[in-house]
UniProtKB/TrEMBL annotation, chain B:
PANTHER family the record matches: ANTI-SIGMA FACTOR ANTAGONIST (PTHR33495:SF14), ANTI-SIGMA FACTOR ANTAGONIST TM_1081-RELATED-RELATED (PTHR33495)
NCBIfam families for the chain: ant_ant_sig
Top-rank lineage group of the source organism: Bacteria
Residues of the STAS domain: 3-111
GO molecular function: anti-sigma factor antagonist activity
Organism name: Streptomyces diastatochromogenes
The protein's name: Anti-sigma factor antagonist
Similarity remark: Belongs to the anti-sigma-factor antagonist family.
Length: 171, 113
């Protein structure tokens, strides 16, 4: 199929992709996006995130375990944005997501100070007895561990994180 | 989303049964309810089979319970961990620090020895 594509058709295809990307703010072309939500940055709003992700997992026919991991990562990241990003200041978090052939993804936008969870997290020292461990800091580690891919970008001063679970072929 | 707690005494063991979800909105209240059960002259057994979700906030609660139990030189046994809760505890190294039994019967058997 690739071979019969003329150069002109390819160019047109690429242009179409670019238009879509611009319209959807970087959303992958193949995504069937669920309409997103915007929540105030407080703990009471996190149930909305959980509900959104559970519904996405259902739409993407993820297993219970996969849905749990995606929800856990989303919950931990959102909690971190509320507690350590905005630190009690008022602000908003935009959440959207989608189902693609090979993955289900959830994306967070926030305007808290720039924070890359991938480099900012500290893995727990598993050798240290529990009684001597610090009480916090596990959330971002869990978020990164739970999902199959975790991407982060600072876009025009906003934190953008995309969490994804790979769908199995029969999923 | 909520978490409910009920308790009973079985011999020298206090059994606390939790139901619901332990996350950043429910963990604070749960911790306050749970701590008084640690060390009332007995071991504490926490039945998590009705808990469908635990986030790091829930782990924090378990950590605080664990510390209190250590101070009071008593034990905490967890039973009824779902595959997912086990994943959360295993990834963070929590599994090794608690006595874990599959269910209440297994824990009773162990107590009886």
């Amino acid at each position: 199929m690739m071979a019969i594509d003329s150069g002109a058709a390819s160019a047109e295809h690429t242009a179409g992709q670019e238009r879509c990307k611009a319209r959807c703010a970087g959303q992958p072309l193949a995504a069937k996006a669920a309409s997103g939500l915007r929540i105030p940055a407080d703990l009471d709003s996190l149930d909305l995130v959980a509900r959104f992700v559970l519904e996405l997992g259902r739409q993407g026919r993820l297993s219970d375990s996969q849905t749990y991991r995606l929800r856990l990562a989303a919950d931990e990241l959102a909690t971190n944005i509320v507690m350590h990003g905005y630190r009690g200041a008022s602000g908003g978090i935009c959440v959207d997501g989608g189902v693609e052939a090979d993955r289900v993804w959830v994306r967070f936008h926030d305007d808290a100070p720039a924070f890359d969870p991938r480099t900012g997290m500290k893995a727990p020292d598993l050798e240290v007895p529990l009684g001597e461990r610090s009480v916090g800091g596990l959330g971002v580690f869990l978020a990164l561990t739970a999902v199959d891919s975790f991407d982060y970008e600072l876009v025009a001063g906003r934190n953008v994180s995309i969490l994804a679970i790979h769908r199995s072929e029969h999923g | 989303m909520t978490v409910k707690l009920s308790s009973r005494t079985e011999g020298d063991t206090t059994v606390v049964v939790l139901e619901g979800e332990i996350n950043s909105t429910t963990s604070g209240g749960l911790q306050a309810q749970l701590l008084p059960f640690v060390g009332e002259g007995s071991r504490l057994l926490i039945d998590l089979s009705g808990v469908s979700y635990v986030s790091s906030a829930g782990l924090r609660t378990l950590l605080i319970v664990h510390r209190r139990a250590q101070q009071l030189r008593t034990g905490v046994i967890l039973v009824g961990l779902s595959e997912e809760v086990r994943f959360v505890m295993s990834a963070t190294g929590f599994l090794d620090f608690f006595e874990i039994e599959d269910d209440l019967d297994a824990a009773r058997e162990r107590t009886g020895r």
